[in-house]
Design goal:
By secondary structure, the chain is of the alpha+beta class. The protein contains 6 helices and 12 strands. The strands form 3 sheets. The protein has a 4-stranded mixed beta sheet. The protein has a 4-stranded antiparallel beta sheet with strand order 2-8-3-6. A 4-stranded antiparallel beta sheet has the order 9-10-12-11.
Length: 226
């Protein structure tokens, strides 16, 4: 049986030319942590990331937040719920400063009907989001919190990693609390995992960026922490 590919919650490196659609959208700029929309708001705008990254999260009845995916350049934001409920199924908050295209929901639906290539790209995005959410359900159900933290580090290294003389440098900064929100665990647990990785010389920090000795080292540790 073919081994299942690692599913990253970071949707990045999407190839699509949005320039023909600029005339039918508005440009929106947001600063880091400035809310784009809240869960259960009526869907009136659909967004496309031009620059930056947006975190999609769900909030339960106790007010607890769980990040489910992060959308990068060319990704579509706000479409989950467009045809089923007409309310946003997630909240959306930038993790960096962002530049977005903003389409009215009606206009975006018109574009999907007018341009088959856009419809195909849209369905591809939906497939990726569904795959991410089903993968997270499995991990939350069957994997330990420590395992999930390692999984996120592997995904970050695969998505944003660059080889340097002493390992793999992750090219984006993030806090332990942000990692905890994404992993569905506590900041204390993330801190404990990071201390263990430093002890085993798998993780170091340089100028605020994390450097991993290798992805293989994380995978081997995962096998112990399942």
């Amino acid at each position: 049986m073919q081994k299942k590919a690692n599913v990253s919650m970071w949707i990045e490196h999407l190839q699509f030319d949005w320039s023909p659609f600029y005339s039918r959208a508005k440009i929106v700029t947001l600063s880091k942590h400035q809310t784009l929309f809240d869960q259960e708001e009526e869907i009136n705008q659909i967004y496309v990331v031009v620059e930056g990254r947006i975190r999609l999260s769900i909030i339960n009845k106790l007010g607890e937040e769980k990040a489910i995916m992060i959308i990068g350049k060319n990704g579509i934001v706000g479409d989950l719920g467009l045809y089923a409920t007409n309310t946003y199924l997630t909240s959306a908050v930038p993790v960096t400063s962002c530049k977005l295209l903003s389409f009215s929901a009606i206009e975006f639906q018109r574009l999907l009907l007018e341009y088959p290539a856009l419809l195909s790209f849209y369905l591809f995005n939906l497939d990726k989001k569904f795959l991410i959410m089903t993968s997270q359900i499995v991990e939350l159900s069957y994997q330990s919190a420590r395992f999930r933290v390692l999984q996120l580090l592997i995904q970050l290294a695969q998505t944003y990693g660059a080889e340097v003389h002493n390992g793999i440098r992750i090219a984006i900064r993030f806090t332990q609390q942000e990692m905890a929100n994404v992993a569905g665990t506590s900041r204390v647990t993330v801190a404990q995992v990071f201390r263990q990785l430093r002890k085993e010389r798998i993780l170091t920090k340089e100028n605020g960026y994390i450097i991993l000795s290798s992805i293989g080292s994380l995978v081997r540790l995962q096998e112990k922490w399942k």
